[in-house]
Amino acid sequence: MFHLPLTSLRAQFDDIDIYLFDQLLKGRIQKGIHLLDAGCGAGRNITYMMQAGVQVYGADISAEAIEKTRELASELAPTLPARNFVVADLDALPFAEDKFDVVLCSAVLHFARSEEHFKGIVQELWRVLKPGGMLFARFSTTIGLEGKLQQVEGRFYRMSHGPVWFLADEELIAELEKSLGAERLEPLKTVLVEQDRTMTTWVVKKAPSRY
Question: Where in the numbering of this chain does the Methyltransferase type domain appear (predicted)?
Fold first, then answer.
């Protein structure tokens, strides 16, 4: 009987977000769909998608990161055009409205430059998402650490490791859901990391078109 080596997992999945892996297990990401990784970095969350026949796109503000993702795609999925991967600020994506079945945005939103920038990114991710499509976002929040963080101004907080991050709270997330008409596919899931930050997973669906 042939067994795959456990070491092959890293080659298949790279450093995929474990909560995104959960969406794969639930069948919400399928071969042939159009998927955007917004803030893709060097492609850690889309390595498996490329190999699985997903029509992957990526956007990142770093030209160096996009070059690495294009190199990864050329190796794992040579039929994916290099133009699928673009340098862009996430609040101004160069993609058509209603283009993607799934939009990912993992470990990015807490780097927003202002509350308006944060909302602008979310609205832009929503714009390019097809009716009936899924938005998966994971970002640092104040949930579970209310009153325990060093507030700088507004929703900006100094993190224990030094940088200042924009941290949404449950109220802001609920406000966005209402304004977008989003339907939660999962309850909010928040993980406490070493008592100094939390990471919240937000998975929502865009209402299907009525026409």
Answer: 36-136
pTM above 0.85, yes or no: yes
Q: What is the DSSP letter of 172?
A: H
For 99, the 3-state DSSP assignment is coil
What letter represents residue 35's amino acid? L
DSSP per residue over 4-63, as a string? --TTHHHHHHTT--HHHHHHHHTT-S-TT-EEEEET-TTSTTTHHHHHTT-EEEEEES-H
Domains in the chain (CATH in brackets) are 8-205 (3.40.50.150)
Amino acid at residue number 166: F
